[in-house]
Amino acid sequence: MSTYRVSLRGTRVCFHEVDGGFHSVKETTAPTKRSRRSVQSVDRALDLLEALVAAEGEVAITALATRTGLHVSTVHRLLATLLRRGYVRQNPETSRYYAGAKLATLSEGRSRFGELRLRARPLLRSLTEATRETANLVVLDDLQAVYIETMPSPQVVRLFTAVGNRTPLHATGAGKALLANLPAGRRDALLERLDLRGYTARTIVDRAVLRRTLDEVRERGYALDDEEYDEGVRCVAVAVVAAPGRESAAGAPVAALSISAPASRLTRQRCAELAPTLRRAAADLAEALRDQTGAAS
User: Fold this and answer.
1) Which CATH code is given to the segment(s) 105-296?
2) Distance (Å, rounded) from C-alpha 192 to C-alpha 202?
3) pTM
4) 217 to each of 182, 210, 239, 270, how far by Cα in Å?
5) Where are the domains of the chain?
6) Using one digit for the tens of pLDDT, what is the confidence trace for 43-73?
7) Is the pLDDT of residue 163 over 60?
8) Which among 99, 122, 118, 100 is positioned nearest to 108, based on CA atoms?
9) Pairing mode, if any, of strands 2-8 and 134-141?
10) Is 40-99 a CATH 1.10.10.10 domain?
């Protein structure tokens, strides 16, 4: 059997010669050759992540299948794993996918949070030097707060927060600071979706109580985690609200700064005393981000 390929008005047509006759058949494209040392599932997952990052926004699963050349069922299985690990997020309203904040923990290069982390580091270092407690930079990722930078306390007894750690919004200081400073519509939509699970006896598990607490956070300018996520741990946090731009909708926080420590050292009174220091650091970070945006434009 012989195979012939011809081009008719720009369209490639493939024929097989069988028993003296010609039969048109669909021409298949040979898959890109992978190295014999390549692990197929890893290759596919990386192809998928690269397609998501290149999309610079939400993308449908069928579009991802087209961009990667993978079957929709394969894309679905890979997305399920990446979603569970936090590298991919899904918009519940559109069912479309987008790159998750956890990707920022892998590389700073062109990461969405690379500039934010870079600008925040000296401020976190100053906070830790001034308070001798652990300082953190936290961002909102759907229904969770994600730690993307941390400066550990120099003290022997201290808190260890891993970069990439994901925590519930309603039970943490940074999470409540982020929630409280969202535009009302977005905040209310997130509140309706939150699973108000109790982590300690102090966790807020009533939606009405949480709403009142968030109103208080906005009024006083800082949020507390009063042993609500881990017993014996207290945290004070403020939101970083930058000017509207690529990274932030009007009035929405781009991040939160927090100080966390054993509750025996970080009393409620000390939290109130540290709040102005945190607010100044948040204002400095917002200004640095505005300057960077202005220089880039």
Assistant:
1) 3.30.450.40
2) 21
3) 0.64
4) 12, 10, 10, 17
5) 1-30, 40-99, 105-296
6) 888 888 888 877 767 889 998 988 888 999 9
7) yes
8) 118
9) unpaired
10) yes
